[in-house]
Amino acid sequence: MAAVDWFAAEAAVAAPAPARRRAPAKARPRARKRTRRVTGGIVWIAAFAVLLAGVVAVNVAVLRSNVAVDNLDKQEVQLQAENAALASQVSSANSSIRIEQIARKFGLVPASAADTSYLDLSEP
Predict the structure, then answer these.
(1) Cβ neighbours of residue 98 under 8 Å, at least 6 residues apart?
(2) What is the residue-level pLDDT of the chain in tens, covering all 124 positions?
């Protein structure tokens, strides 16, 4: 058998490899990317919130204008009804039967067609 040299065996054994440390430069960009992702997400959420608020504001404005138009339509219908009632009153006030009745109250009578004559104003 071969002789074993116990002390030589220790020298032949390799020293443990030094522990690898991650470079601080590599760790920082990863942290920045996560920060950027979170910041980007917040920016997108804020942008969508502003857009949704704008859509809601536009819808409220449209609803208000529709209410105003509806009120104006009701007012228009009411004014048309009043105009029709006033036109009816004017029509009845100008009727020949009513005028004839008022004339009779003042003692006037209608002229007969045989008694009607015309004057010629063109001759001097």
Answers:
(1) 92
(2) 556 666 655 555 566 777 776 655 554 555 555 555 667 888 999 999 999 999 999 999 999 999 999 999 999 999 999 999 999 999 888 888 888 889 999 999 888 888 888 888 887 6
The residues, ordered by sequence, that sit 6+ positions from 100 with a Cβ below 8 Å of its Cβ are: 110
The ranges assigned to domains in the chain are: 29-105
Residues 73-107 as b/e (b if ≥16 CB within 10 A, e otherwise) read: eeeeeeeeeeeeeeeeeeeeeeeeeeeeeeeeeee
**Closest of 37, 56, 60, 59 to residue 48, by C-alpha:** 56
CB 85 within 8 A of CB 95: no
